[in-house]
Specification:
Layout lengths: L6 H9 L9 H9 L1 E6 L4 E3 L7 E15 L5 E7 L4 E2 L1 H6 L6 E14 H10 L1 H27 L2 H16 L13 H8 L3 H13 L3 E4 L2 E4 L2 H8 L4
Antiparallel strand pairs: 1-6, 2-6, 3-4, 3-5, 3-6, 7-8
């Protein structure tokens, strides 16, 4: 749903984001001329794996999951994106088809930005160009870490790490319940295993008093130990 938002409001939102802090007033004005603001609900698709991208997506608020589908239709969630991140930039920059599908996990406020505008800003502003390059490198690093974890870590380690990472993305309430309700299939897709393995591992963690489970709600009772089990860098 495209929503009308005052230019001065969008300008203030852009200035608060680290990625745009080096833009001049004229460069910010150019960016504002080349973006379309939208508010989208959970389940909306921002772009699909295999499509050509001539725009990139700036995420103001909310959470987006980036997922890949295997040959048998199995979904694998490769990362979550939160406010302040840009999606689809690497595919646009390399002129490759999108390597993943971006789906709204929590209601979002986004801006679709013309890719040609970002290219122009990168050519004219070396500081901005460096920030965008760091962004691409960060994405690649996260993907490499994910692949390494799936290949080398046990299911126990991956589920523990997945729970800690979900806390970092979605936060917890006052009782340490993850703020995002997840199905066992969702969690399996996050850690790269099957739902049956996740169910067994959650039962083990519950016996060890590391978590409590109430339907789709998961309460993290011992985050430090889960962190150690998952070998999560803090």
């Amino acid at each position: 749903m495209e929503t009308r938002v005052a230019i001065n409001v969008l300008r203030d939102r852009l200035k608060k984001l680290e990625i745009f802090r080096h833009l001049s007033e004229s460069e910010t004005a150019l960016l504002l001329e080349n973006l379309h603001y939208k508010e989208l609900r959970k389940g909306n698709i921002l772009y699909r794996e295999g499509c050509y991208l001539n725009k990139v997506i700036l995420l103001f608020d909310g959470v987006v999951k980036q997922k890949k589908c295997g040959s048998k239709g199995k979904e694998l969630i490769i990362r979550f994106a939160k406010g302040g991140e840009i999606l689809g930039f690497r595919s646009f920059l390399t002129e490759e088809l999108a390597c993943a599908t971006a789906e709204v996990m929590e209601d979002v406020k986004v801006a679709y930005i013309e890719g040609s505008c970002l290219t122009q800003l990168m050519k004219s502003n070396s500081n901005f160009s460096m920030i965008m390059m760091k962004h691409v490198c960060g994405e690649l690093s996260a993907t490499q870490t994910f692949i390494l974890n799936v290949a080398q870590k046990t299911v126990r380690e991956r589920v523990a790490e997945g729970l800690v990472q979900l806390k970092e993305v979605f936060d917890v309430d006052d009782d340490c319940n993850l703020k995002i309700p997840l199905s066992r299939r969702d969690l399996a897709n996050v850690v790269g295993t099957v739902p049956e393995s996740v169910i067994r591992m959650l039962a083990d963690f519950k016996k060890e008093n590391l978590i409590e489970v109430n339907g789709r709600r998961i309460r993290l009772m011992n985050i430090q130990k889960l962190t150690r089990i998952g070998s999560v860098a803090m």
